[in-house]
Amino acid sequence: xxxxxxxIDTSRLPRGAVARDVERHRGGSVxxxxxxxxxxxxxxxxxxxxxxxxxxxxxxxxxxxxxxxxLSEGIIDRAAQFExxxxxxxxxxxxxxxxxxxxxxxxxxxxxxxxxxxxGCGLCGAQTLDAAVRHPPAVxxxxxxxxxxxxxxxxxxxxxxxxxxxxxxxxxxxxxxxSGRIVLLREDVGRHNALDKLIGAMQRANxxxxxxxxxxxxxxxxxxxxxxxxxxxxxxxxxSAPTALAIALAQETNLTLxxxxxxxxxxxxxxxxxxxxxxxxxxxxxxxxxxxxxxxVY
Length: 298
Prior knowledge:
Elements: E1 17-26, E2 29-38, E3 41-47, E4 50-57, H1 62-72, E5 84-89, E6 94-99, H2 102-111, E7 115-117, H3 129-132, E8 145-146, H4 147-157, H5 162-167, E9 171-177, E10 182-188, H6 191-204, E11 212-216, H7 222-230, E12 235-238, H8 244-252, E13 256-262, E14 265-270, E15 275-276, E16 286-287, E17 290-291
Parallel strand pairs: 3-6, 4-7, 8-15, 11-12, 12-13
Antiparallel strand pairs: 1-2, 3-4, 5-6, 9-10, 9-11, 13-14, 16-17
Helix pairs in contact: 1-6, 6-7, 7-8
């Protein structure tokens, strides 16, 4: 998410971006211009009239967000249990009023996880260690992916990130088929929010998690692996670094985890047998699969 280098047409902004004034200093000169910035507002999840969580998020694709969050957090087991969602604008933000079966709502109250999630946090407010670190079942079926398909997805992904192109401030999560074609993509200021939105979009489009792979523009932290494994995704590639806990959970859940996924190389940190490459030896420009040049870590 580097700083924008070209002028932005603020008259035609994608949803999730807004125009604001900025005093810009460049090369010793000062200019006051209109710039595109990412929206970030509180989004409250309310289940069966009971408040559950507040996430700082980009206010776009909110129905996808509601469904994806409900699935990836284990609040419901399948999309059919997501009965309806109503989006209600409030003075302080947006409420997602979600109806789920009463038995699931009762279990949710037992978890006692009322939280405020900042954009960089998927676990803020969890009150016990068990609530903070969940262990989803192992992914039953995971795909084998050709390296050329992974590289194709990475190449296409950037051109589809319209909010980030305008603002330089949001993450993306994308779903690619086994040829490397991007099928779905969602953006958000929070990396885990973008993934939840994508999971919701996949469910609504009846996308089979065994028939493709996930690519994210962030680091591969624990909650990204946890959310992916919970909904049956068995292959995750991140453009930045994984964490030790993410690697351990990927090993445990039978998920192939790729980090530092770039055009010139990548590192496979868990279940490497599913990434097929014609080049069996590491590139000279990498060490242990990690680019030698400094890479951004988000």
